[in-house]
Structures are given as C-alpha cells and as structure tokens.
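Q: Can I see a sequence and its folded structure?
A: Here is a first one.
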Amino acid sequence: MTIHRLKLIAPNSLPIVGMKLEDGSVSDFEYSYDDISKVSMYILPNGRTISHSKNEGLTALIDSNGNEWPHSDIEFHSLLHGR
C-alpha cells in the first residue's frame, strides 16, 4: 500500500477545513488515500475513521469560507488537481 495524507481543496481553490457530520456538528479531520487500492479514509480527532466506501456520518466537507461540498466532488478535485 502507498498511503498518502492529503490536504483537500475545493473546486473554488479554497482549503477544506472541516467535515459536517449527520448530527450537524463540524469536525476537524485528516484525509488519507491509498493509490493502489483506491481507498480513502477520513480520520477524526478521536481516532474514529470514516471509510470511502461507507461514509457513515459524513454529510459534507466545508471550505474556509463556510461553503459545503459533497465529499465526492472534493476527493475528485483534490486527487486530480491537488497533488
């Protein structure tokens, strides 16, 4: 496996600064991506992970201006343009 920790960026070129969860709260996170398996993980401060295949609890990613984005849009944009 080749796991990379990446900073996510929105299509408007602003950094992603948090994730909105199902309960309405916003959390910091780290994002990692494995080039070989194509699996991504969102790692929350409490050690909980949200996998790409499930995305349980994740409703949106938030840029530095407070705009909400679907995680799939952000992953696609960041992996294509942000590396």
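Q: Show me another, different protein.
A: A second, unrelated one:
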Amino acid sequence: MLSGLPLCFFLCSAFANADGPPPSSSSESDATVVPCALASPGSLTEALVCSDKAKAAQQLYDLACIGPQVPAAIEVRQVWRSRESLPADSAARDILIQTLMAKCLVEASLEPNSLERVDPSALSFLRSALTNSNPGVAITAMLGLVPALTKGDVATIVKIVSTHEDLAFPAVMALGESCLVEAHVGIVSIRSAYSGRQRNDIDKYMAEPGVQDLPDVCSGKKVRIPQSVIAKAMNLPLVTEFRHQSSNATQVKAALDSPDPNRGLQTLLDVQCTPEHAGVVDEIRKAWRGRGTPGNTLVSDRTAQAVIARCLIQADFAVTAEKAEITEAASILRSAIHGDDVMAVMVAVDGLAIIGADEDVARIAEVPRRIPTALNAVVRSVGFTCGASNLKTLALMRKEAATDEMRDRIDAVYKHVEPTREQTCGKGK
C-alpha cells in the first residue's frame, strides 16, 4: 500500500496519473498573477507559476498554513484565484498541486470554532478531488478536508475506501483527526473491510500515543492537520509484528471501578469474552449483576451496558444455565440498536448477530440505512457470524439498498468475508 512508498515515487505517480481539475468560476479566472519570468527567485509564487511541479509540491508539503494573513497563505490564495489563466505547463495547473493549494487555503481560512471564513471554492475542489483516480490526489483531499469534515464527507470517504485499499490507511489518518462520531465509526468500518498488512498498519497507527486523545481538541477547538502529515502517511514503515493486547481481569476490574467512564469504556471494548478469558467474564458478570448499586457509574452508562450485554452473549449464548441473563442482555441490545449512540448501535449489531434470531433481521438491516458509514462493519459482523438469520439479514440489506451502487458495495465487502464464513460455518450456513 502507499504507506510504504518513498515520497518521490508518490509525487511522480501523482503527476503522471492525475485527471484534469474541476473548472474554475469566471471570477477566479479573471484574477491575475505575476508570470514565471518575473516571479521573485526562490519564492513560493515562483514555484507555483513556473513548471517545476516537484519543487512546488515539496514547498506545499512543507508549508504551515496557519492563518489567512500568513505570507505563504496570501501567495497561495493569489495563485489559486488566477490558476486557470496560467500557462498549461505551470505547476499550479496540475491537479495535485491544486489539491495541495486548496488544502492550504482551507487550513488558513479557519477561525477558531467557526467555518465561516473557509474558502468555498477550495472546499468544493477538495470534495471533487476525493473521487480522483490518482491516489495521491484523493489522499491529499481527505487530509485537506479534516478541519471542515462533514458527515457527508465521511460517508464519501468510507464508500471510496471500501473498494480502494491504497486509500485505507491515509483515510484512517484523516478520520482519526476528526471530532465527529461518524468519523470514528468510519474508521471501524474501514478497518473491518481489510485484513493482513492494511489491518496491521491501521491498528499500529491507532495504538500510537496521542492518536485517539482528542477530548481537549474536541471540546471546542478545530483540528488542523499539517502538510507534513502527508509525508508521514506515505512513509510510515509497515508493521509486521503488531498484536492487539486484550485486557486482563485486573484491568477490567479497575476499568469498572474507574471514575473516568471514557477510559473504562475503552477497556471494556477491548476485552475478549471467551472461555479462555473466564476471569474477565467473571468481573463483567459481577458488575452486570450489581449495576443497580449506587456509585457504579460505568455500568449505569447505556453504552457500557450494551458492551457488557454483548460480552455476556459472547460468553454465554451456548450455555443453557445462563439463558435468563442472555434474555436480559438481548433486551438491552434490542433497545440500543435503535438509539443515537453509534458505538452502542454497532455493539448491538454484533451481539444480536450472535443470537441469530429472525426477529432481529430487520433491526440489523436497518442500521446501514440510518448510519451509512456503518455499512462495511455491519456486513462483516453478520457475514462472519454463522447462522441462517445472518444470511437473511444480508439478503434484506441487498434488497432494500437505496441504489445499485450501495448494493454493489455490499457485495464487494461480503466478497472478502465469504471464504472465511464458508470455511468456519459451512456453505449456506
């Protein structure tokens, strides 16, 4: 994938394969800028209006566009507005250079807590560039949209990445910088669509210190992503020995007793509820049975209850002695799947897929219609879980898909799942 390629190769391939840029408005085309012969030697303007595209790209990659009055941002803005009037061989006529310029302008025009000053032409350009056939252009557009990312942008990115594995890791980097819940559900969806090297790269990146520590940023500040992060996306070494470490019983007990519900919930999300982890399950079961106890903050949280309910179903569904607890856990999940908490919804999908009751087919199939970014994750959850009802869910999702494109996407994701399902469950089971 692209994360292992040298930056120079990325630049060369980006220039060679780029499609043409979207047309500019007449007001932009009417602007003028100094020609190459008269540009100040060594300036950013010279790099953009002259023909050395690699030099222009390198300057833009190294540029910090941190405000509308920063000299570099002023230069980029002037060239941007006149780009269509430049000679055809000018660097600023290239689609990748234009995408980097648009990214700079979006970052430069942001005021704290407001999107009012975002250059609309730059935003429009980046959204068009998301679907460009050149991976370098699409990646730059993803990263450029981070400060102004919308739910619609997230849905577009997840849809594109579901069938373009070269974009998976950079998309995770971009979505991971967003404060939108949908962006983080999108990461789960992207991760679930891939295995092997792509999955390892994603897991390693998400495990890096600070990557998921966004509470201060998301409390009211807009996220800015520097140009240099693109180089990191292209050159991060491949991971071959990363292994996810599940929580042990002591960690789970500490999480359940923690005064910080967010950290406790993250630990619960990581646990494996299998016979090999009986100590973990015992701690969770104690907390579940004592959830009415005063001061038990985490277990009174609705999302945490859904996570615990899924764990009990994973551990006990095949155990006759625990049927009453399973019934109660299933009731929690059937309520959670209709809620607004996206994490709880996805946990409910997993747990109900294990139960495999016909009454849950419509409930699960409705999730991707309500939360489009969850489509990949839902397909894989029901696809990897044995049971005829889960095949019915997939069939219903296909039948009720709003477009042929969505139906094709369901098929594309399930294509990765089907061989493993048949090996584990048997054909048609």
